[in-house]
Amino acid sequence: MISKDGNRSSTLPPFLQWSPAGRAVVFFLAATSIWCLLAEFYGLCSMRTFTFYVLVPATVVLVFITWLDRARGDGRLFRSVVVGAVGGFLAACAYDLFRVPFVVGAIDRVGPDWLRLPLFKVFPRFGALILGEPFTPAQTDSQFTLTAHIVGWIYHFSNGMTFGVMYMAMIGDAVRRSWLWAIALAVGLEILLLVTPYTGFFNIAQTTRFIIVTLTAHLIFGVVLGLYVRNRSRALALA
Questions:
Q1: Cα separations (Å) of 227 from 95, 119, 214?
Q2: Tens digits of residue pLDDT in 20-74
């Protein structure tokens, strides 16, 4: 249906549109990715159980309502979810690229001591938790299965993408809102990293160096996410 101003209007109920109710639904569904890990930390249920019975169904529902808005709605929810997901993925890539030198230094024992941090050690552990494979704190990365490594990386990028979607749901309109809100989200993620059992659970020393490096990485995540989302949303608004 086309409205009087020439734009396509939606016949979907408000909770399936890019309205406050619809954004709340999108935020809730996207947040199940990080809740998956938090459920394991706080003993609510295993990460494996949460993944298969909550995260996967929630992702299917989110994809469905995104498609539904594209097919029968005004397309705002569809565009916002896609822009947020792409922005979150690109931000996660930038976040990881910044951390690569520290990971290489830790693996190969090269460079100064301050440049050695095993920041990727959590990824195969994510995968092992989802697959239900037991591991010990002293277990090395090479002792995890290839499947655990792959699943762990997929889960890591799912977090980045869903953080992007959650960011879009929080700000609503990336054209009008300041992109600096993405920095606020990034700082919030760093605080979450430090106040939850994350470091203790994965046997990571919460040193000043670790905090500085991870905070910088999260700030890079926020800058890339905020700028991409703003610029892409402006381009779509002008199209």
A1: 14, 25, 20
A2: 999 999 999 999 999 999 999 999 999 999 999 999 999 999 999 999 999 999 9
For 63-74, write each residue's pLDDT tens digit: 999 999 999 999
CA separation for the pair 191, 86 (Å, rounded): 24
Q: Which residues pair with 8 in a beta bridge?
A: 2
Query: Which contiguous run of DSSP H or E holds residue 96?
Result: helix 76-108
3-class SS of residue 185: helix
Token pair of 100, please? 């690569």
- CA dist 233 → 83, 91, 95, 207 (Å): 7, 16, 22, 38
Helix (H) / strand (E) element for 155: namely helix 146-171
Q: What burial class does residue 4 get, using C-beta atoms within 10 Å of its C-beta: 0-12 exposed, 13-18 middle, 19+ buried?
A: exposed
- The DSSP symbol for 43 reads T
Closest listed residue to residue 86, CA positions, set 22, 160, 17: 160
Provide the 3-class DSSP secondary structure of residue 30. Answer: helix
CB 71 within 8 A of CB 81: no
Q: Please report which helix (H) or strand (E) contains residue 216, including its range.
A: helix 208-238
Hunting for tokens 């995540």 — which residue is that?
221
* Beta-ladder partners of 2: 8
CB 36 within 8 A of CB 55: yes
Rounded to an integer, what distance in angstroms lies between the CA atom of residue 32 and that of residue 186? 18
Cα–Cα distance for residue pair 174/182, rounded to 1 Å: 10
Distance between CA 187 and CA 206 in Å, rounded?
Answer: 17
Q: Say how far residue 199 (Cα) sits from the centre of its chain.
A: 18
